[in-house]
Amino acid sequence: MPPPTPKGVITRGTTGINRLRRSDRWLVHDDQVRRVLLAAPDPLVVDLGYGASPVTTLELAARLRTVRPDTRVVGLEIDPQRVVEGRDGVTFARGGFELAGRRPVLVRAFNVLRQYPEDAVAQAWATMQAGLAPDGLIIDGTCDELGRRCAWVLLDATGPLTLTLAWDPSTTPRPSDVAERLPKALIHRNVPGEGIHALLTAADRAWDATAALTPYGPRVRWRGAMDQLAAQGLPVRPIRRRLRDCVLTVPWAIVAPQ
């Protein structure tokens, strides 16, 4: 039986070494992602739209295998000229949102939907969700060219679960500076009256309120800001380990477009 026709359009394909390191670090420590990987009878992961170079797909495989050594990773590209020979236990093939007929437990689609119109997001999500293995997850994200500012949505077959913002503490002055890298589902919603605008405003205010912690470094200051947000009743995910990045994860309901 021939593979399904790829769904999607060719994107710019820009990529770079370690560009997705912040989302990779988050993936290997997130409880839900780890549970899905460890419980899967076939831990197949699809990296969708890896671009002109497969380097970030190879990095993803190496990092996920610290959680589950037998993780199988397939890189999919809709542009046939970008499909390369497999290496390091990773295979590559042509495919789009239909996932080339595969049934992965995890799909990473980074900097893909960023290049689509906003009204294309729901259908792209639905197409990927339909191809998931039971209990499968999707991470749809965006980052800048060096991976210093990132944002992503985690979804399962029923819909979006969480939004995560992650940034380099040494190069990002304020939490709201991540706004320019919001996922396509939210990038146009950062206006008064929308949840994402309220979240970024609250994060900036908490950051300002913890200015006294500045001498201890931006990571310590951000932990203080997170404590402020939690004290205000915002359901932020607590930080339980030492992090290289500043990270903010909230339930999707907090930022879902109005």
Straight-line N-to-C gap: 43 Å
- Determine the fraction of residues in helical runs and give it as a percent range: 25-40%
What is the approximate shape? globular
Helix-strand pattern: HHEHEEEHEEEHHHEH
Q: What is the C-alpha radius of gyration, as a whole number of Å?
A: 18 Å
Q: What's a quick, concise take on this entry?
A:
By secondary structure, the chain is of the alpha/beta class.
Report on the architecture of this protein:
The structure is a single chain. The chain has 258 residues and is an alpha/beta fold. It has helices at 21-29, 31-39, 55-64, 121-130, 184-187, 195-209, 218-231, 252-255; strands spanning 44-48, 72-77, 90-94, 106-110, 137-143, 149-156, 159-167, 246-251. An eight-stranded mixed sheet has the order 3-2-1-4-5-6-7-8, sandwiched between helices. A hairpin with a 2-residue loop joins strand 6 and strand 7 (159-167). Helix 1 (21-29) packs parallel to helix 3 (55-64). This is Class I SAM-dependent methyltransferase. GO terms for molecular function: methyltransferase activity.
Keywords:
20% strand; methyltransferase activity; alpha/beta; methyltransferase; Rossmann fold; transferase
Write the layout of secondary structure elements.
Layout: H1 21-29, H2 31-39, E1 44-48, H3 55-64, E2 72-77, E3 90-94, E4 106-110, H4 121-130, E5 137-143, E6 149-156, E7 159-167, H5 184-187, H6 195-209, H7 218-231, E8 246-251, H8 252-255
Parallel strand pairs: 1-2, 1-4, 2-3, 4-5
Antiparallel strand pairs: 5-6, 6-7, 7-8
Organism: Antrihabitans stalactiti
Keywords: Methyltransferase, Transferase
GO molecular function, one term: methyltransferase activity
